[in-house]
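Quiz preparation item.
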C-alpha cells in the first residue's frame, strides 16, 4: 500500500484532500499524467460500479442479529491485528473474508461490507494515522463491494429451502469473492500504483494462497451450517480455529528474536519495506530489489558478501550490470567519506542509500549478528544518520518500526515492530554500546 504524506490543511483535509491534491499525491514520479488518468480510472471504476450496484440492485440487508454481526466483526478485527506467519506456511491470507462470507449469508452484502472494511479503516485512521482517501483504500472498497455483489448473485441463483442445502453455493460464493477481490484489488491496483508485475502477483498472491483459501472457505461453510441451528454461538469453533493459533503465534513473535532471517533475506525485506515507506518510483523499486539480490552470494548459504572485496564488486559474479553498480555504491557515506567514489549526499543513487540502511539494519537484527530488536537497532541507525546514512532513509526506517508495519512478510514468525517509548537513560546507554556494533556492521 502506498504511504501518502499528510496534507498541510490539517483536520479532515488530511483524510479527504481536494481532487487536485489527490491526483498529485497519487501519481508516482515515473508515471505520466495520461498514464495516471488511466490508472485512476481502472481503480475508481470498480468502486463506482459497486456503488451503482448497491443503489440499483438494492441488495437485502438484515440487521436483526446484532450479536452475530458483533461476533464476526470481533473475529475479523482480532485476526487482522494479531496476524502472524509461520515458516513454510502461507498465512498472509486474511480471515476477514471468511467473516464477510458468513455475514453475507445471514445478513446481506451491506453488513458484510462493513465487517470486511472495519479492520482496515481502524488500522489506517487510528493506529497508523494515515489518510483514508488513498488509492489503496479506493481499490479495497471497490473490490470488496464487487466481490460481495458477485457472492450475493451466486447465492440468489442457487437459492435453496434451507441454509444447509445452500452450503455448496456458499462455498462457491466464497471462492468467487476471493477471485474478484484479487482481480480488482491486486491486478488493478498493484501494477499501476505499486509497480508489481502481473505474473508475479498471480504467483505470490493467488497461486501460493490457494490451498489456504480452499481450507478457510470450508471452515466458513461449516460455520454457516452451525450458525443456522444455534445462532451466534456457532461462530465459536471458527474463532477457536482462527484466533487461538494467531494469538499464540503473535505472543511468541512479540518475544522472539528477529534472528530467524539470514542477512541476505533480511536486507531484501527491509529494502522493500523502505521502498514502500518512501514511495519511490516503480523503476527504482525494481532496481533496488535487483541490487539487494546482487548482494547475495552464489553458494546459497544466505550470507552477504563483504562490500570491500577486490575492486569493490562483491564476489557473487555480478558483472557490470546496473544492479552491480547500485550494490557497489551501497558503501558510500552521506558525508562523502565512503567508498569506492566518495560520493556525498544526493550524489549517491537513492537505491544505494536505501540499500546501505537496509544492510546495516539487517546486520544488527538478522541471524549471525548481535540479533537486536528492531527498536534497539533503530537507535544505532539514528546515531549514524547524517554521517554514514541518509537521514531521510533512517527516518523512513523509524516510521516502519513505529507503525508496526503489518504487511511486511518474513519467512518465519512475524516479529512485531514495537513502538514503546524508551527511557532517555536507556537510550543514552544503548547508543554508547551500539556505536561500535554499527561501525563494525557497516565495515
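Solution:
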Amino acid at each position: 500500500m502506498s504511504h501518502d504524506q499528510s496534507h498541510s490543511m490539517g483536520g479532515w483535509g488530511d483524510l479527504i484532500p481536494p481532487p487536485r491534491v489527490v491526483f498529485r499525491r497519487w501519481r508516482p514520479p515515473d508515471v505520466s499524467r495520461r498514464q495516471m488518468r488511466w490508472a485512476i480510472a481502472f481503480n475508481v471504476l470498480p468502486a463506482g460500479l459497486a456503488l451503482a450496484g448497491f443503489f440499483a440492485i438494492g441488495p437485502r440487508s438484515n440487521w436483526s442479529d446484532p450479536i452475530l454481526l458483533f461476533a464476526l466483526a470481533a473475529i475479523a478485527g482480532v485476526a487482522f491485528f494479531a496476524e502472524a506467519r509461520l515458516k513454510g506456511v502461507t498465512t498472509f491470507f486474511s480471515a476477514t473474508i471468511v467473516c464477510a462470507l458468513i455475514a453475507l449469508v445471514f445478513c446481506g452484502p451491506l453488513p458484510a461490507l462493513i465487517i470486511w472494511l472495519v479492520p482496515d479503516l481502524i488500522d489506517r485512521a487510528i493506529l497508523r494515522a494515515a489518510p483514508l482517501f488513498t488509492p489503496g483504500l479506493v481499490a479495497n472498497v471497490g473490490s470488496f463491494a464487487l466481490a460481495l455483489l458477485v457472492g450475493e448473485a451466486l447465492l440468489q441463483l442457487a437459492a435453496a429451502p434451507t441454509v444447509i442445502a445452500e452450503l455448496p453455493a456458499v462455498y462457491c460464493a466464497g471462492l468467487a469473492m476471493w477471485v474478484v477481490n484479487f482481480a480488482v484489488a491486486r491486478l488493478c491496483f498493484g501494477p499501476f500504483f505499486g509497480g508489481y508485475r502481473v505474473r508475479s502477483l498471480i504467483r505470490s498472491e493467488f497461486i501460493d494462497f490457494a490451498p489456504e483459501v480452499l481450507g478457510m472457505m470450508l471452515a466458513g461453510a461449516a460455520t454457516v451450517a452451525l450458525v443456522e441451528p444455534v445462532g451466534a454461538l456457532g461462530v465459536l469453533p471458527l474463532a477457536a480455529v482462527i484466533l487461538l493459533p494467531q494469538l499464540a503465534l503473535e505472543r511468541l513473535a512479540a518475544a522472539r528474536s528477529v534472528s530467524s532471517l539470514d542477512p541476505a533475506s533480511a536486507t531484501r525485506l527491509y529494502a522493500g519495506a523502505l521502498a514502500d515507506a518512501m514511495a519511490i518510483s516503480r523503476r527504482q523499486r525494481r532496481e533496488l530489489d535487483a541490487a539487494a539480490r546482487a548482494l547475495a552470494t552464489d553458494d546459497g548459504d544466505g550470507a552477504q558478501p563483504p562490500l570491500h572485496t577486490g575492486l569493490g564488486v562483491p564476489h557473487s559474479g555480478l558483472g557490470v550490470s546496473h544492479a552491480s553498480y547500485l550494490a557497489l555504491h551501497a558503501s558510500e557515506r552521506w558525508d562523502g567519506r565512503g567508498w569506492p567514489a566518495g560520493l556525498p549526499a544526493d550524489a549517491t543513487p537513492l537505491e544505494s542509500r536505501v540499500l546501505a540502511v537496509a544492510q546495516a539494519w539487517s546486520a544488527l537484527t538478522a541471524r549471525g549478528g548481535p540479533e537486536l530488536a528492531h527498536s534497539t537497532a533503530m537507535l544505532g541507525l539514528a546515531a549514524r544518520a547524517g554521517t554514514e546514512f541518509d537521514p531521510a532513509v533512517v527516518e523512513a526506517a523509524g516510521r516502519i518500526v513505529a507503525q508496526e508495519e503489518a504487511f511486511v512478510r518474513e519467512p518465519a514468525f512475524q516479529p512485531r515492530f514495537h513502538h514503546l517509548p524508551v527511557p532517555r537513560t536507556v537510550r543514552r546507554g544503548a547508543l554508547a554500546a551500539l556505536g561500535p556494533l554499527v561501525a563494525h556492521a557497516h565495515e
